[in-house]
Amino acid sequence: MEQETTSQINKDVTEPKETLVEVTGLSKKFCKDLKTSLWYGVQDLVSGYSGNKEKRELRPKEFWAVKDISFTLKRGECLGLIGHNGAGKSTLLKILNGLINPDEGKVVMRGRVSALIELGAGFNPILSGRENIYNNGAILGFTRKEIDSKVEEIIDFAEIREFIDMPVQNYSSGMKVRLGFAVAAQMEPDVLIIDEVLAVGDLGFVLKCFKKIDTILPNTAIVFVSHSMPMVSRICNQIILLEKGVVKFQGQNVSSGIDLYYNKFSTNENSQIVFSDNSIELKKAWVDGVVPSNNIYHILWGNTIDLKFKIQNKNLSKIPYISLAIYDKEQRGIAEVLPENQDLKTIENQDEITFTFQLKNIYLSKGIYNITFTASEDFGFNVYYKTHKAISIQIEHDKQIWTPFLMDSKTIDVRWC
Ligand SMILES: Nc1ncnc2c1ncn2[C@@H]1O[C@H](COP(=O)(O)OP(=O)(O)OP(=O)(O)O)[C@@H](O)[C@H]1O
After folding, report:
1. pLDDT of 57-113, one tens digit each?
2. Where is the ABC transporter domain (predicted)?
3. Range(s) for CATH 2.70.50.60 in the chain?
4. How far is the CA of 91 from the centre of ligand 1 (A)?
5. Whose CA is nearest to atom 4 of ligand 1?
6. CATH T-level assignment (fold) for domain 19-265
7. Looking at this predicted complex, what is its ipTM?
8. For 104-183, where are the E strands, in sequence order?
9. Residue 65 in contact with ligand 1 by CB distance below 6 A
């Protein structure tokens, strides 16, 4: 791997942004079996094979953890690396950080590279937090004097002053992440590599990290791995979706990449009953006048829809109170439907009743939403029946918006005051 270090990089943001990361045709293979892997290692040593010298086919039990990945990253750009577990994200980061060598391809990094990859990685566990700050600073090429001028800022940012002289091995996971991020970000790197570890920090710290990332981004190239799509959409301006080591999507349209990622997890399964005391049964749930495709109702953004729920009474004497909740792809509650004045009059056993709820001008942004149906004696107590995914809808429009709502709006006035 080629690693260029240019200590004097002009950081004037008005200058054309220079390319700090160039990755070309990067591939890395692993072996599924340790014994075989060791045997291949011996064979490679004997045959004199190492690293990039020649392209080689996979041998039995080998697989590509990362295959043929290329991208460039300029100062001020943030690349989001997403993909399911085992897709190859951490392997790619480790190659970028020089922790492992690729089997094929080339990485060129310019400037100082800081990384927050594995919890506690880069720290010597028996040294104190303070000593580790000096170690890391030295590795990044800072003089002792330069580190002296930064150490207090780092300790303050990490908010672990009380424990800064304790060996890092006694730190909690959150404290390690705090110190790791503080060192990585406060050292003003040219390239910052961040893995999922950030998620270990508490909410207050994670928010602080995002604020810091916003501040350093104009002068930094960032590679960010996360399973949290809101985080990815918040900071990344380009995205790579990996699947089994191979790029499935690459580009600046972050929302499209995220959509594809979610589609990998979407299932066509029907409603999931989470509770039933057998008082009622939900016989059918549908969107009036819309034909579903794979159990999903496709709705145009801004349309008004009628949701219908047909129940059969088993042993209730009164009509139950029906409420709905709308969840997005990350199971975040987006909206509630709590009808007022529902007439809870008397019913007979085996009666079938159809409820219709009108949702006016749906301004939910593009994507799939699931509707949870709850029948109870009254709102909030004595639940008879609850089912997730009673209805799944897919809102469609041409705008790639990540936030939950795309409001209907128009400019009504523009004037010089
Ligand atoms: N040292 C290793 N030896 C053998 N296989 C490995 C090694 N490191 C990683 N792998 C394999 O490479 C594949 C990619 O792993 P990697 O950790 O890069 O995935 P990931 O996308 O970061 O996953 P996650 O989201 O779970 O962190 C996995 O199948 C993993 O088992």
Report:
1. 788 888 999 999 999 999 999 999 999 999 999 999 999 988 899 999 999 999 989
2. 40-269
3. 272-396
4. 6
5. 30
6. Rossmann fold (3.40.50)
7. 0.97
8. 104-109, 113-116
9. yes
